[in-house]
Amino acid sequence: MEQSTRSNSPNLVVVFFFFLSFCNIPTLLSLPSSSSSTSAFPNEALPTKSGYLPVNPTTGSAIFYTFYEAQEPISTLSQTPLLIWLQGGPGCSSMTGNFFELGPWRVNFHKAKSDPLVLEPNSGSWNRLFGLLFLDNPIGTGFSIASTPQEIPRDQYTVATHLFAAITSFIELDPSFKFRPIYITGESYAGKYVPAIGYYILKKNADLAVSEQVNLAGVAIGNGLTDPITQVATHAVNAYFSGLINERQKSELEKAQWEAVGLTKSKNWSEATNARNKVLHLLQNMTGLATLYDFTRKVPYNSDLVTDFLQNNEVKKVLGANESIVFEECSDAVGDALHDDVMKSVKYMVEFLVKKSKVLLYQGHFDLRDGVVSTETWVKTMDWEGVGNFSMAGRKVWKINKALAGFVQKWGSLSQVVVLGAGHLVPTDQSLSSQAMIEDWVLERGLFGHPQEEDLSSNFQGAL
């Protein structure tokens, strides 16, 4: 998720990786044996692989990962797709995605809040049919290691170079990974990370031998911040027509939005980010909502459970994480480093990706930060020859087990999904819907299969 409040201390640790790399000792750590598991972390919940992937062997900076192999692969593992998950923030850990959203096990209370935290199976996990890799990105986030504050990325190009190093290192761990189709996924501020690494891979592949290329098959962005200058201008109209503010408040919010847009156009990046934060704070104060991430919630998401769980040294040990790191859900240091990046657009990267691969954009219906209106507004401005056909494509009713799950719009390589009953953290709110969505999109089944033609009758369904 995007950071709304940040922790107080940066997560920067200089550890033994410099020594290991200097001595030419591999820094790809495997998970300890199952005998090391704790009562809070049962054997069956252990990742298939876990540890660190170097992004700079000279300094020891590395990205922490957890990997879960497919539970029920529908093909040989060498052909089974690999999903990569990137959390947003900037600076929030993908372990939130792992243990609170779409991983095979979720953190919860045993019976009451006074009881120890436990892991419970997640029937909506994204690794039911596919391999699933979580990366703590950028370095300095979660359990990842930034050897110095200066090495933390300050732009999406550096984010992408680090991710490319980590992904290629991961692929080298197992020969069967080499030709598996890879899908980069993520949410919120990963609406920048996902296009950045996807774009980087495709550009890099053009200069590499086939045997060295990364087999990118597509990218998926949930409730993403991708084209901020367009998206920041949607909050007032969205809140107004949702009945959350009146016309006077709408005008006040629009004034704040115009300030953010103007500063962005003048490339005053730091002040533009501050102006966007002002818009969000203003909207929060006007509505009095528990969270803008889901306007139906009476209390915010309880993702703090993940932080409490991962601060346990025994849990760190079984995951192969450096035990000297005090886990924080979101890193101040990373958020500060990317402050000037917030209002910069990566829409051009999505435009490139949609021409070379396939793209999924999905949004939880209740999200007020980076939701449906926010996404549809920037999609309309894409420089892509298919955007007109996409805009005119039928919006199909999407059902799971005969129950309404949302809506799917598709044309060519671009798909958009509105997930009903969900806010910013779609897999948390609607785990089975999110699982069905990602599986059908990857496998091109159901509404994600053959190109859809406009069904004019559907536009008038229920109008009378």
TrEMBL record:
<dbReference type="InterPro" id="IPR029058">
    <property type="entry name" value="AB_hydrolase_fold"/>
</dbReference>
<feature type="signal peptide">
    <location>
        <begin position="1"/>
        <end position="30"/>
    </location>
</feature>
<keyword id="KW-0645">Protease</keyword>
<dbReference type="GO" id="GO:0006508">
    <property type="term" value="P:proteolysis"/>
</dbReference>
<dbReference type="InterPro" id="IPR033124">
    <property type="entry name" value="Ser_caboxypep_his_AS"/>
</dbReference>
<protein>
    <recommendedName>
        <fullName>Carboxypeptidase</fullName>
        <ecNumber>3.4.16.-</ecNumber>
    </recommendedName>
</protein>
<keyword id="KW-0121">Carboxypeptidase</keyword>
<dbReference type="InterPro" id="IPR018202">
    <property type="entry name" value="Ser_caboxypep_ser_AS"/>
</dbReference>
<keyword id="KW-0732">Signal</keyword>
<dbReference type="InterPro" id="IPR001563">
    <property type="entry name" value="Peptidase_S10"/>
</dbReference>
<comment type="similarity">
    <text>Belongs to the peptidase S10 family.</text>
</comment>
<dbReference type="Pfam" id="PF00450">
    <property type="entry name" value="Peptidase_S10"/>
</dbReference>
<dbReference type="GO" id="GO:0004185">
    <property type="term" value="F:serine-type carboxypeptidase activity"/>
</dbReference>
<dbReference type="GO" id="GO:0005576">
    <property type="term" value="C:extracellular region"/>
</dbReference>
<keyword id="KW-0325">Glycoprotein</keyword>
<keyword id="KW-0964">Secreted</keyword>
<keyword id="KW-0378">Hydrolase</keyword>
